[in-house]
Design brief:
The chain has 188 residues and is of the alpha+beta class. It has five helices and nine strands; from the N terminus they run βββαααβββαβαββ. It has a single domain, classed as Aminopeptidase. Helix content is 30%, strand content 33%.
């Protein structure tokens, strides 16, 4: 595994590469600690999702009830797939945001995306690029996924640059939930 993400999990070497069983509950990057999403992260997620600027490219501000359902859905994803969303903290323990690798239907096709969202005070400091690199490494190397996508609102130039710096290639445009988005992809 590269320097970008160091995990506390181990591979099950008895399984074929495509079917490896990996549980990556916790990993670190140079400046962030990622921890598997849990119920006690609800308050941090509610605060993140209520910020209109943060939520502008996440489908809009979410109520606490919607965030609670989001948390339950993403915890179930972990149980089903062995990976999902992590909360992100700085080395001093401050909540910075969330990020993850998760299954998502795009135009009726099951894809696996990387996703990330940071509190505003962490914007413009390279945290998104750092976590995108780590998620890509985990997804392609440890989880042995054949490809990963990033879905970005057309107007979100910062996130598009993050994916491009992480070697994702622009694949196509589409519409999701009434919004114009672009799909970026990286393959094994």
């Amino acid at each position: 595994m590269s320097r970008s993400a160091r995990s506390d999990s181990s591979m099950n070497d008895d399984t074929p590469r495509k079917r490896r069983s990996v549980a990556v509950d916790h990993f670190t990057t140079d400046r962030l600690t990622a921890e598997r999403l849990r119920e006690d992260h609800l308050a941090d997620l509610v605060a993140l999702h209520r910020d209109a600027e943060v939520s502008r490219y996440l489908g809009g501000v979410r109520t606490p009830e919607v965030t609670r359902a989001y948390l339950a859905t993403n915890m179930a994803h972990w149980d089903q797939h062995g990976f999902g969303l992590w909360t992100l903290r700085t080395k001093d323990g401050a909540f910075a945001g969330r990020a993850g690798i998760r299954h998502i239907l795009v135009d009726d096709v099951d894809e696996v995306e990387i996703a990330y969202a940071f509190k505003r005070e962490f914007w413009g400091q390279g945290f998104a690029s750092e976590i995108a690199t780590a998620l890509t490494d985990l997804g392609l190397s440890q989880l042995a996924l054949p490809s990963l996508i990033g879905i970005v609102y057309v107007g979100n130039g910062a996130s598009r640059r993050v994916l491009e710096k992480s070697n994702y290639q622009l694949e196509r445009s589409t519409n999701r939930h009434g919004e114009d988005v672009v799909i970026y992809r990286i393959r094994q």
